[in-house]
# Entry
Amino acid sequence: MARYEAVDSPDETTIFPYHDLTPPTVRDVYEARQVVSRHLPRTPLVRSDALSAQLDADVYLKREETLPTGAFKVRGGVNLVSQLDEEFTEAGLIAASTGNHGQSIAYAGKQFGVPVHIAVPEDANPDKVAAMERYGATVHRRGDTFDDAREWAERWAAEEGYRYVHSANEPALIAGIGTAGLEVLEDLPEVEYLFSPIGGGSSAAAYAMTVGAMTDADVIGVQSANAPAMHRAWAEDTLEPSDTMDTFAEGLATSVPFALTARMLREHLADFLLVEDEALREGVISMFEDEHIIMEGACAASLAGARKLADEIAGSTVVLQVSGRNIDRETFLELLDVE
Ligand SMILES: *Cc1c(COP(=O)(O)O)cnc(C)c1O
# Structure
């Protein structure tokens, strides 16, 4: 029973005794690769001629939006669920999500035959909710924000004995996501800058511990200035929640920083930029117009960050993580200014 009771957490989220907050190692990432490469395709790394010309650099896109579920997170979900303790394979999993974390866990649950519950905020992206349900997950709409849904899921996990899959304080998720970093290193060992969006920080932490720690490349995280919780954690070494959390890019919308990713980002991240939501909107539109790639708001943080750092990266070899494509029709048309 004690296993399902919350323990002290260094941040303001709830963790359980099965949450070991030791950062994953490169070895864990190589082990994750055995699993991830069996269940998911390798993603392409494609040079963008348009962005290379605009930024006067050699710009490559790591096309994580081509994965099943349409976002990078599924690498972590598959790795975590593959090593699930037997006691949870029957009870099942629960996660709180604005969408892509939920899709990742739902997808992995389906692959490994484990029941999945996902708590989402009431106004969750309808396409993401439909996808979770398609993968067989039970979706619970709880509260106005991600953090409301998260608190509900944390309580319910304790009551029902589900395995609560935290969106960041999970070494197995980060190790799984890190397999993308290994792919980048193999395909483009000369990479000098890699830009990754930051919400809870699992993706940037994974690139930072692989591409960042294993080479001289700078891994740069980019967050919305309207939801700067992790930025503050990184800059001020605090796990205080942020007062500001109001971004249209739901993949970046968290007001509470997470202990494990904050620690890893402080250790390995070269720089951490904040960008305005307007730059994210502009990034979605220009990626559509220049590359005909559809991406969601959160995903545009890589490009917005590279534009912000244009002077520094000119003449360099740059990778932009294309983190996800799950934008709904209404938001996309709004961005394109279609009535
Ligand atoms: C989750 C997500 C992010 C942010 O990733 P974190 O690991 O939470 O920092 C960025 N883009 C997309 C598409 C996402 O789903």
Remarks:
- DSSP finds 16 helices and ten strands in the chain.
- Residues 146-160 form the longest helix (15 residues).
